[in-house]
Amino acid sequence: MDHFIDQYLQHLTIEKGLSANTIESYQRDLFRFFDFLNHNGIKDLSECDTAVLLKYIIDMRKEGLSARSRARHIVTLRGFFNFLVQEKSLGTDPTEIIDLPKTGLRLPDFLSVDEISLLLKMPDTGNPKGVRDSAMLELLYAAGLRVSELVNIQLGTVYLESGFVRVMGKGSKERVVPIGGFARESLETYIRTARPLLLKNIQSKYLFVARAGKPMTRQGFWKLLKKYARQAGIQKKITPHSIRHSFASHLLEGGADLRSVQVMLGHSDISTTQIYTHVAHEHLVNMHRKYHPRG
By C-alpha distance, which of 21, 244, 94, 196 is closest to 252? Predict the structure, then answer.
């Protein structure tokens, strides 16, 4: 991957006319990032995604780098990846997910463990819809799902005894994700008690149902999430994807290995290159149980 650094630094020197000191600073930042990639067994820049950048930022913070220094590193990476996309050496820019306001570095909106715990307590489980909503929130956070994946899960793809779900992700790529004890208990209660009441003798293949046995829509769930966030007093602007970022961040901050988190997230480049097929299901379950706050 080193030739990409050479290309970029040459671009900065010739096209941008930056000073030698500035070029040297960019070079140090890029070498540091490439050392991080090598340490985590990443051999190709196409493998860089949300989880990689979250892990990198978390590692920099653990090593004592200030928010200003971390922000500078991300600025370097943003320019680097943008250059590679423009040169068609890469298809996507993973730094697009990161915001850099004047006050410093900010990751995509995500909730703390305490905020997640508060949010998950909001549904009123004294009625069938509340039991359903509780199960949806628990599963969304437990498995780091996209909202489209959540609402399209079918009853036959949930394996409560084994503690995992089969998810159909982007590009019709299927993956298996462990869900942990809290989500298992919530789902079991929903399937046994609330779901039959919501269906009213109507048959449906979907796990989460709304009116007339139809699946919950993405827009419908988003409205529910915003309602429960308001009830919890959470001021952050959150979306279903914020819960997915929270899932990844909490696992990485807890010490989970990067490859396992990437597999659980089901990023498209992993499915395409099949470079993570050696990460066994049993290992994922153990990682989830050990490092997820509700595993």
Answer: 244
| Residue 133 scores a pLDDT above 60 | yes
pTM for the whole thing? 0.65
Please confirm, yes or no, whether 190 is among the known catalytic residues.
no
What percent of the chain has pLDDT above 90? 37
Catalytic residue among 146, 175, 250, 292: 146
- Give the CA count within 13 Å in the CB-facing half-sphere of 141: 29
Please give the backbone phi and psi of residue 165, each rounded to the nearest 5 degrees, phi first: -125, 150
166, 206, 226, 276: which is the annotated catalytic residue? 276
Any catalytic annotation for residue 146? yes
At 245, list the tokens: 């970022």
Task: State the Cα–Cα distance between residues 246 and 138, nearest whole angstrom.
Answer: 13
Exposed / middle / buried, residue 149 (Cβ in 10 Å: 0-12, 13-18, 19+): buried
The amino acid at residue 60 is M
Determine the Cα–Cα distance for residues 255 and 244; give it in Å rounded to an integer: 17
Is residue 269 within 8 Å of 46, Cβ to Cβ? yes
**Domains (range + CATH), the chain:** 2-97 (1.10.150.130), 113-291 (1.10.443.10)
Task: Tell whether the model's pLDDT for residue 27 goes beyond 90.
Answer: yes
Q: Which amino acid is at 283?
A: H
- The pLDDT of residue 172 is 74
